[in-house]
Amino acid sequence: MSCLEINGGRSLYGTVSVQGSKNAVLPMMAAALLNKGITVIKNVPYILDVCYMIKIMNALGCRVKYEQGTLTMDASCLTANELPLMWAGKMRSSIMLLGALIGRCREAVTYYPGGCSIGARPIDLHIEGLRKLGVTFLFEGDRIEAKAKKLTGAQIVLPFPSVGATENILLAAVNAEGVTCIRGAAREPEIVELCGMLNQMGALISGVGSDTLMVHGTDCFRDCLVKASGDRIVAATYLMAAAACRGEVMLTGAPSAYMQSSLAVLRQMGCLIRQEAERIVICADKAPLPIPYTKTAPYPGFPTDVQSQLMAVLCFSEGTSVIEEAIFEGRFNTAWELKKMGADIIIEGRLAVIHAGTPLRGTCVEAKDLRGGAALVIAGLAAEGRTQIQSCHHIFRGYAGIEFDLQQLGADIIADHGSSDCGTVNYGNDSNVNPGKSGFGQAVQMA
Ligand code: UD1
Question: CA 242, 243, 244, 247: dihedral to nearest 10 degrees?
């Protein structure tokens, strides 16, 4: 079983470079299926979710090569349009391949997506949006069969700015005849990056960064090379760790422009923050101040993906804080693990009331989801004594070599990655992949 062991109580000092953005890279990989040619993405983190996605793309006939953070995908000749159940069920982003595959093949079969257990995570908005474009569906248990004789541009209104639904609809709409207008679209930076890539590939999307996207489809995509931005959630996680442990940390490759709501909360906790375009320095020399009330919200609001980490930091403040989780109701599962370490947290529906003051002590806890796992790392780093975090495969799905990054900052942390079900990812006969900061396997193949 994968686990992390932390000997807590050390301040963090030093510089660390932030990995590429998981949530930007995964839909970009799906977009590569649209192009009957070569697509290259740089700054790709070597994490389990990328590995799962590569497995799926291999199964579809897409050749993939991963080397030194660069992913090269050749989708000139797809051989299947059914996602393998084993991998599709493991990650939420597998659903994104539906929009791309239906665009490319007009037929696709997938399975209800997996991913973190952080709430209900329905896909009704994806399905309704694709239906508007002309897709018909057949559901049998977890199996989803999609067909479209023709994709036609449509007016789509999203009742909630779902990130995944916006991306999925975009991936199909760029292949539709005519113009699609998506109102109520999500505005997350990862969507801006996906639109930039699709435009580079030959689509014409306007309104990028707003909640109304106009998509002029094309049936002729071209090769492209893109670089994913730094991961704003990983960057925020490391800043939160510094806030909890105290110290002075510089992040390079951090997309500060995308992180304003997280930086505002860190400042509210009393941390000094200096920021440049891709560099953030945090200085935390005293216990964090409590936050009377904060609420998660779609971008540009405070990200639900940083909520658990914030909760962990607030356990080390002096006073009472309240967090409202407005996106994923299951995110508060982490509170039960923090309580094992001595935290005083009361959950009332979508509100968490954190009474700080009791020192947390290391113990054995379990990562229940990706960001909740990262929150336990923060708690373990700042608590007195030894913390063992089990089920860390959740953390390794999104953090490339988290233990190395934190060791670089002076933390006493070691990882056992266990045996990855990705095994040796094979990216082709001609190259072996450099696993970079991650230690989960010898990486990559490309079928
Ligand atoms: C993405 C991110 C995830 C982040 C989330 C919100 C990826 C791989 N994951 O997830 O890290 O936490 O955005 O920023 O990019 N909803 C529906 N019906 C749908 C789709 C969503 O009701 O068809 C609801 C969800 O239950 C949730 C809310 O909409 O309450 C937000 O979900 P969504 O934005 O779709 O999140 P994901 O794309 O799954």
Answer: 50
